[in-house]
Each structure stands twice: as C-alpha cells, then as structure tokens.
Amino acid sequence: MNKIDRYIASSVLWAFLIVIFVLLGLDYALTFIDKIKQVDDHYPISALLQVLLFRLPGKLAEYIPIASLIGTLMGLGTLASTSELTVMRAAGLPIWRIGLAACQPILLVSLIGLAISEYVAPVAEQKANLIEQIRDQQDTNFALTGGVWLKADKKFVYINAADNTGKLYGIIVYTPDNEKLKRVIRADTATHKKGDEWILNNVRETLFFPDHTEAKRFKTMDWSVSIKPEHLFLASQDPDSLSLSQLSNYKDYLETQHQDASQYALEFWQKALRPLGSLALVLVALSSVFGPLRSSTMGGRIFSGVMIGLAFQNGLNLFGQMSVAAHFPPAIGVSIPIVLCTLAALYLMRRKG
C-alpha cells in the first residue's frame, strides 16, 4: 500500500472510529434512560450499568455496517471538500483504486466485528441476560429461569429452571400416543450423566390407560433423551445473543428434532454476512461521494448516510423475515439487499469512470 492508499485508508478509519464511538455512546445513554425505571432493591443501578456494559460488544458488531457507511462518507467527504480527491483523480488515480483503499480498513474492522460476534459478544450478552433473569433470585447459579418447553424424541419436555452446572429443576415429561396422553413424568431435579443419559430425582410417574390411571413414585429414574445441557442453555437464549457456532449447533439440533429452525438460520446468516454488507455500504458511500453527494455539506452526508443505513437495515430485516415466512433459504433473503447495494454502487461508479 503506497502513501496515497494509506492516507485514504487512515481518513476512512478515523472517521469510522468517531462514528462508532458516537453511535455506541448514544445507544448507551438512551438505553440507560429507558431502563432506569427498572431499578429497585433487587436490581440496583450498578447492575443496570453492568448489563449495559456487557451488551456493548454486541452493539459494536451490530453497528459496524452503518458506521462503515457514515465513516466512509465522512472520510472521503472530507477529502472531497478539500479538493484532495479531485487532485487524486486528476493525477490519474481511478475510482476503483480509491474504493479499494477505502475498503481495506472497513474489511479489517468487519472481520474484527465477526470475531467479536463469535467469541466476545455472546458471552457478554449471556452474562447480561443472566443478571436480568436472576434479579429476583437469591441463587446466582441459575442460568435459566421462568421455564422453557422443548420437543425431544417425540416427547414434550418442560423445564422450570437450569443452573450453569447442567442440573435441571422442575421437570415434566409428556409422552403422547397419537392424539392421546400416554405418560407424564414429574421430577424435582435431573442431573446429566453422559451422552443422552440423565438421572431424575424424586420422580412421580402417571400412566394413562383407557379405563384407569396409575401413579407411581421413584427416588431416582434413568431418563434417556437427546437433550444435552448446552441445548438447554441455547434454548433459554434469544437467537441474537448466540454466536455463529452456537446458532449453527442449535439449528442442527432443531432440524434433527423436526422443529422450525428458520429464526436461528436467519440470525446466523445476518451475522455471517455482516462483513459483505459493510463492504457493500462502502461502495454505496464511494459512489455517492463521486455522485449526488459530491458538493454536499458534512451534515448532509451524515444525514444521507443515516437514511441509507436505515434503509439497508430495514431491507435486511424485511427480506430476512420474508424468507422465514415464504420458506426459502434465509441466506438468500439476507443476500438480496447486499447484492442490490453492490450492483447499484458499481453501476454508479462505472458511470463516473
């Protein structure tokens, strides 16, 4: 990379850092104002500040595409306002070379954002969720409260709570027989042995026959079911708080159980394709700087960037949810806005030479 490439890249990178800092600061402040009413004896303000802090890595990864767009508009717009881009173009530097230099820092931060989405944000987000979930609990080992329903091996399982050691509390297992109920098992706790093997403790079993029912009690009972502790944890989390590997893992599990995994597939592709979305928005910014926003003020460029970014994000949400509703691959739904932005930007840049 020569001096001109480094100069363009540094201008875009510094503008990006300013934008992402402002976006995160505004999000933190506005969320704090919105959530302050939840503060009480069980949920002090220190816990609220901790929750918001834990959620910053996820917000950072989420804001990278729109920050890339606005940062590129600001960085290249500053060079355009001082006629530096005009001098570069007069010296024979093609638009594609300027675009390549602008894309390099954005690609770097996008890959960093992808790593954050995989390794940092999920852990931090899940800790934030845990603080909120247990604010009325005295035992801070609980990772899942309020109950969750699962379907496993053609049985319906309700679990009231689970802790971070994999122990389950308040288990009810419903075993159907076509449209009739065949058996109900209730247990106070369950502990995982290995593989698909669990041990139920303090068990009450009810068997349903055509003319009578039978109730039995057991101190312990072996329970074989394709539910693993990690599946319970993943089931207790919102899809947007999971990493790419967790989304893929739980999506595969739901598919093996013949359950709908489209929301997890959609969230997976939205996160996985963020770097491509960021690059597409950089190309849009580049075509705008050399096109309709060439003589615009900095405020006008920022406003345009916000509007384009919101339109892009709404397009991602729209086509993503359409893919879920229409039952076509979420990867296609997420790709449509990215492809449209890229094609439009390339067309406008080609017209400008």
UniProtKB/TrEMBL annotation:
The keyword Oxidoreductase does not apply. GO terms for cellular component: ATP-binding cassette (ABC) transporter complex. It is found in: Cell membrane. It is a multi-pass membrane protein. The chain crosses the membrane at residues 12-33, 63-83, 95-116, 331-349. It comes from the Bacteria. One of its GO terms (biological process) is transmembrane transport. Keywords: Cell membrane, Membrane, Transmembrane, Transmembrane helix. InterPro entries: LptG, LptG/LptF_permease. Pfam families: LptF_LptG. Component of the lipopolysaccharide transport and assembly complex. The LptBFG transporter is composed of two ATP-binding proteins (LptB) and two transmembrane proteins (LptF and LptG). Belongs to the LptF/LptG family. Part of the ABC transporter complex LptBFG involved in the translocation of lipopolysaccharide (LPS) from the inner membrane to the outer membrane. This is Lipopolysaccharide export system permease protein LptG. It comes from Marinomonas spartinae.
